[in-house]
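Re: Re: token formats

Sure, here are both.
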Amino acid sequence: MRIAIVALLAAACSSPAPKETPQNPAVKEAPAESYQKSVDDNARKMLDEGRKVFRFETFGSEAFFGGQLRLHEVIAGEKHGGIGKGVTPRDALGLGLRVDFGSIPASLGDVIKAHTLSFDDPENTIALLKHDAVVGVKATFDGDRMTTMGITCAFCHSTTDDNFGKGIGRRLDGWPNRDLDVGKIVSLAPNLKPISELLQVDIDTVKKVLLSWGPGKFDAELNIDGKAFRPDGKPAATLLPAAFGLAGVNLHTYSGWGSVTYWNAYVANNEMYGQGVFFDPRLDDAAKFPVAARAKFGHHRHAGAEDLITSKLAALHFYQLAIPPPSPPKDSYDENAAKRGGEIFASKARCATCHVPPLYVEPGWPMHTAEEIGIDDFQAKRSPDGRYRTTPLRGLFVRAKGGFYHDGRFATLADVVDHYDRHFKLGLMQPEKADLVEFLKSL
């Protein structure tokens, strides 16, 4: 039998190919070598376009932040066609805004390096905005008059290396800005009526809620469910998440609403109030998402207006997946202890059950009930699935400010380890806990 099979295969191999070989007709037009080049060219193009979108694309959010809230008027000040004294560079840095030194012209950069720039003159904020140097804020000018403004992805998800001063340096895309006081910035707007009408509360309540968030936090569900505070009275806002290390990660956000590109579309349309198309009938659930159902956020479409979002999503997604998690400084942890901690992570502590190396998140559907991880379900219930996502762990050192977990409830990594030791009854000894912390710091 075996001899017969071999003989058959040999005969087949020696037979001439049929004259008319079935073939994809496109192959003649796109041979393998040129097709591979098109792949490489496309990758470079997507990377460049995605970076520009992440840093500078407002998606038409000027209509909301400038046209409705009139936030640009406060920034510009009366001298430049706005209201009040204007926002000085010191004010802006105090609110957690960042200045990209790489966007500043040499003449202005020399003044900053010489420490002769006045940080108390709103005129200098105008100059920085004209050069797109205020990270995540894009202003439009008619001469020296600021006519409107919008925000970009970098507003919340970029910071600077502070090489030229606190809040002034080179961009660090994907790093969450844990100093940015989003609520306080929005509360400065002259017209908060659009928000009060959406939530069906008075303006004083809107301001109270916005000012409750504090630096590094934002409530992405407030405008869909109207829940400003937790049952224990604490603000419902969560920590700004990282936008790096997302390659290979399935669901995005603390409670796993959808993929990375889903959340990009969601935020561009329903958080930045951009001009595009968004569809998610889950938001029609009036019991769970009363505000979103009322406002039809699950059926976002500007009638007759140009879609300024959808065409940008592919490149934005590509760029985000290209941003690697940053490596912690070597002097920020004990290497020997981290090595021991890695062994504990994978064995006695059982961390790798969910935080699977090297992604340090579960491949597939990484969702868990509140009971499984030993916390309350308030934030989980604000999402469609009612669960929490396993958070990728790489680059933890960047997210240390403000605490850990979605709301910063654990101030330190030691607190996180203690929590799981109690919840899962792991029986970790104190030296083992210390080593485990060093390993987490090394990721």
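Second one below.
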Amino acid sequence: MAEPERLRAVSDDNPVAPELEPTTGIEQAGTRLLGDRRRMLTVLAAFLLLIVGIYVLIPKITGVSGSLSKLSDPSWGWVAVAIGFNGFSFLAYAALFRGILGGSKDSEVVYERLDFSASFKITMAGLAASTLFSAAGAGGVALTYWALRKAGMERRRAACRMVAFIVLLYTVYAAAVIVFGVLLRTGVLSGKAPLAGTIVPAGLAACAALLTGMIALIPADLERRIARHQDRRWVHRLATVPATVSTGVRTAIDYLRHPRSGASAIGGAVGYWLGMVGILWACFHAYGGGVPFGVVVMGFFLGMVANLAPSPAAGVGTLDAGLIGAFLLFDIPVDTVLPAVLTFRLVGFWLPIIPGVIAYFALRRQVNSWQDGEQDMSYTSESKVTAEAK
């Protein structure tokens, strides 16, 4: 079987009854998230005020005004480099989206609708939604799933592709933690190498990768196997979740096994993390540098774990503290860490909110055009049938 065909076959699941689909709740959440333009703008305004308040109050509350005095005098050339890395990361993320979630040529309508332009809008809007509405990316997941469904992708297929998207993205994350943790600890890369910041996270990342791979062993036809012995509807509904997730994991594994077929997706995943690390690396250089590259990489990935913590403002405070704590673990001076991390957050997370909201409104218009096209096609088809009858 040709590699593109194998990749499509993995993600083409057998249809199940709509009431048994595990993704209806996500679709409804996406609709609620996008249904009120006034709410979107109100949340944005409140969020920006919160950010300003935190960044103004941090020096007064913690007594680190001396460390933050550097914020007023960065090397603007390096800040421009950080912004350039940010743009690169968004383009890479859109390439990852297009490579995995952009449909396939066997479903021409979805494939044409989810072109690179639409992928970029969904990427920007999804990242803004993740920042504005929820920690750990739940807002972005809801928005992305909503967009896929509006483009015409079937529920089960959309869910499988989203699982593959997440698995591939965080496989690169885990691989980076393992590789750089080992290289730092063994002295191949320069910099402090505490056990808690190198081997421990590398081991945890390896365990997470192993557990994810084991999920692929769950059979895709789990619902049918259960149906032979159990006719209760709630049991079937529960079985769709592991079956869908396992199919998504196998899809991601097939992309990794056949990199030529998944070059856009794999390159996008690597490029996204490379761009994000590049932002932080440039931010350290904007305030004098001096942090070894291996430490920048490990500190970034360790600090990003804090994004999983619940936060009323999508990581404001928690992610900043996680990143700062990670670099202090590597004995980087606080006078170097604080301005670099806060600038990284401004460039990598807060500044993209505005273009993300703009992309959201552009995406809404594009979705409406898709729906208008469906109505036009329906009308044309009906007219043709009526004409033939006459």
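Confidence is low (pLDDT under 50) at residues 1-23, 377-390. The radius of gyration is 23 Å.
- S.
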